Amino acid sequence: MNRTLRGLLAVYAWGFLALLILPALLIVPTSLATGTILEFPPSSLTLDWYAEVAADDTWLNSGLVSLSISSMAAAIGTFAGFCVALAIYRLGRLPRTVQGALMIPLLAPHIIVGSGLFAVMLFLGVDFESHWPLALVYGTVSIPVAMSVLVPAFAATDPLLWTAAGSLGASPLTTTRRVMAPLLAPALIVAFLLAFNVAWDETTFAIFIGPSVEPTLSVRMFGYLQQSVTPEIAALASILLVLTLIGAALVYLLSPRRREASR
């Protein structure tokens, strides 16, 4: 019975994975079509649409905006997640109200929060062209994701390390900076990459409170799709797919659980 159940779960998992990955992989041959509309399978192949993406500075500018905002957001989310994980490591657990508040970004509908933030920031006179407002929001949203990596990493760390460092005269700040942070460097990198991905892919908040003169890449892609659907957008999506796969490979290689299993 257990073997049958495991087999069914494996079939379900692989089927679900195929449902997610296959549509993304089909975008690659679509981007090579010579026509001016999306078609699959393509009647003939060309790399002209990739040249169009490379020659269009608007895509590059929006990509740089997304890179800047996502990097700031990932740094904020990773730092906050590290602090929360450290508090759980030292205290054993946090109050339920605090834990619930930290999980709210995963549960709250982004369109409702985004519209509310737009009204509040407009009242406060926030400069929407600045990258910081959107980066702060993205950083807050990415905290639970960073915690999902850092809390288990701290849990797998020997608590006597903190005691030993303190017995040798190290202050809590020194112990955190010189002992815990280097020890958990792979988990910190994974948390940063995951938080970066959350900010990079999010579109709703960027529409409401993001810059409009030079919008993020996801917002520009959304606006492009409202006007036309050509293989150029498929070529851009293919480039982003390759970058995502590289990031996923880094996350896998640096995963604390994988490193522990290898040891």
Question: How are the SSEs placed, and which strands pair?
Answer:
Blueprint lengths: L1 H29 L17 H8 L1 H35 L4 H12 L2 H15 L7 H24 L4 H8 L4 H12 L1 H17 L2 H6 L7 H11 L3 H24 L1 H7 L1
Protein architecture, described:
There is one protein chain. The chain has 263 residues and is mainly alpha-helical. The protein has two domains: 67 residues, no CATH class; 166 residues, MetI-like (MetI-like fold, Orthogonal Bundle). Helices cover 79% and strands 0% of the residues. It is built from 13 helices and no strands. Helix 3 crosses helix 6. The longest helix has 35 residues. The two termini are 33 Å apart. The model has no long low-confidence stretch (mean pLDDT 80).
Largest sheet: none
Measured by DSSP, the beta-strand proportion falls in: under 5%
- The CATH homologous superfamily name of the largest domain equals MetI-like
Would you tell me which CATH topology of the largest domain applies? MetI-like fold
The percent range for helix content is: over 70%
Question: What is the arithmetic mean of pLDDT?
Answer: 80
CATH class of the largest domain: Mainly Alpha
- Judged by helices, strands and strand pairing, the structural class is mainly alpha
- Tell me which CATH architecture of the largest domain applies here: Orthogonal Bundle
Our measurement of the CA-to-CA distance between the termini, rounded to an integer number of angstroms, reads 33 Å
Quantity of strands, as a count? 0
Number of helices: 13
SSE sequence, one letter per element:
HHHHHHHHHHHHH
Task: Evaluate the radius of gyration.
Answer: 22 Å
Low-pLDDT windows of residues:
none
General form = globular
How many domains comprise the coordinates?
A: 2
